Amino acid sequence: MIYGERLCLRAAEREDIPRFVAWLNDPEVGQFLSMRYPMSQAAEEHWYENMLNSPKAEQVLVIQIRDGEVWRPIGNTSFMNVDWPNRSAEIGIFIGEKSCWNQGHGRETMRVMVKHGLETLNLHRIFLRVFEHNLRGIKAYEHAGFQHEGRMRQAQYQDGRYYDVLVMSVLEEEYIQS
Ligand SMILES: CC(C)(COP(=O)(O)OP(=O)(O)OC[C@H]1O[C@@H](n2cnc3c(N)ncnc32)[C@H](O)[C@@H]1OP(=O)(O)O)[C@@H](O)C(=O)NCCC(=O)NCCS
Question: Which helix (H) or strand (E) holds 5?
């Protein structure tokens, strides 16, 4: 387990697959994840088996918050495209339980993952891509210490128009100074 103040991150289990399918098929969640097609249980099972063969640093972690005496799963996070020579990695996140949005869990998850990435995995740079209209995500990442780094113009086609994709990152020295 990786513990934050109010949440913990654990490895994803096969039993989580139905919950992932439900979250990803929710249009309000999927709109910011480029979900263009409905997700089947079979496709998610296939993804899960492949994920188990991916490098340990890239395996998906389930975000859990305290619910009385038990931990309640609310979403996922993982590093992707880890580039060891450059000690750089991309990070992804989604909170599938919409009732848990806007309570600081996204910000805290990113802080915990940045700490894990820099202090445990010895990464130097962690970056993310976020659609320009994902104002909640952008704010959460700013709060977690991510800096605006660039803008991929009209890189995302959705609902009949193009959106820019913002690139944000945090560097080792910025994290140490914060
Ligand atoms: C994006 C996401 C991870 C953020 O997590 P979260 O727990 O909801 O975010 P937080 O509560 O940490 O921070 C959200 C901030 O955005 C603000 N916010 C919410 N809606 C906003 C809006 N329309 N405009 C501006 N700010 C907004 C909140 O007030 C909060 O800021 P505050 O702490 O200063 O009040 C989560 O909402 C999510 O998974 N959404 C669906 C999928 C997704 O977008 N994944 C990320 C793809 S890059």
Answer: none
Query: Is residue 134 within 6 Å of ligand 1 at its C-beta?
Result: yes
Give the atom of ligand 1 at the shortest distance from the alpha carbon of 134. 44
pTM value is 0.97
Average pLDDT, the chain: 97
* Ligand 1 atom at shortest distance from the alpha carbon of 95: 39
Q: Give how far Cα 176 sits from Cα of 57, 85, 114, 171, 172, Å.
A: 21, 21, 11, 9, 6
The closest-lying atom of ligand 1 relative to the alpha carbon of residue 108 is 12
pLDDT for the residue 10: 98
Strands (E), the chain: 2-3, 7-11, 61-67, 70-83, 88-95, 125-131, 147-158, 161-171
Q: Is the CB of 30 under 6 A from ligand 1?
A: no
103 lines ligand 1 (CB under 6 A): yes
> In this predicted model, what pLDDT tens digit does every residue of 42-52 receive, in sequence order?
999 999 999 99
pLDDT number for residue 136? 98
